[in-house]
């Protein structure tokens, strides 16, 4: 079994977080922006911990100043994903970084991203869909215009609404207005929870926002009742083990709970989150899962079936991927 060429479905990828460092450095040089502090000597991203990661992420994103930059970013990211066997990817898109929540500006950014995605689908066969994502530490008031952007552009390409950023900032239920607006527009719902905030945070995402998927969610392992609930209801976890290990959520691949969750009947999937930040790719994740937990062809096939079922695309698209 060649893990690199196995067709893969990725449900949790931040578009800006997938920006190759050389791409960001190139844009910074073009625009005369000094970003030396955010790179390591060998050309990776440099950060100390999760909070610092979020600020380095925002600094890198600051060089993306117009729709054309996002089109180029989308092209670079999808080429890299396709090279690792990804046939379908759901990318978190943040209007906060694409016009600051202004609807007219967002439409222009989105058109540029979508054109680049259509070109990648034609050339590499990779299908992309977007999940509009406010940023939790920017607060619930700033999430409202983002939800409006999401609702106004919901459709074949924008299929979901989520929330990322600092999980310890504020309460999820303060974002319920935004999530209700997105849901009423027909968008499917996910939220980052249980990466840092413990099992209680996963319960909040389920009870306060009505999520059908959880971004990370892996700290659910602390609460057996929650693990049972996830298994019974079929809520899907977007697990990103490489991200968790590099950021220190778990000290090692061996201690990552994805295998325990899977064998207890939770519907797990695998994604990279922000691949260059964590020096990972989808093939690397698959390789580590095979080496660490002995995952074989049958388990990877089940993983792909779960991810395809949980994808937020329409049925016609799902059928083309099956
Ligand atoms: N934004 C980008 N990566 C993230 C992560 N791992 N957790 C929360 N927000 C994020
Ligand atoms: Zn994430």
TrEMBL record:
What are its E.C. numbers?
Answer: 3.5.4.4
Say which species the protein is native to.
Rhodophyticola porphyridii
Superkingdom classification of source: Bacteria
GO MF terms here are: deaminase activity; hydrolase activity, acting on carbon-nitrogen (but not peptide) bonds, in cyclic amidines; metal ion binding
Question: What's the protein here called?
Answer: Adenosine deaminase
Q: Which residues form the Adenosine deaminase domain?
A: 7-322
Cite the entry's keywords alphabetically: Hydrolase, Metal-binding, Zinc
Query: InterPro entries recorded for this chain?
Result: A_deaminase_dom (IPR001365), Ado/ade_deaminase (IPR006330), Metal_Hydrolase (IPR032466)
Give the enzyme class: hydrolase
| A Pfam entry, by short name | A_deaminase
Q: What's this protein's family per the entry?
A: Belongs to the metallo-dependent hydrolases superfamily. Adenosine and AMP deaminases family.
What are the names of the required cofactors? Zn(2+)
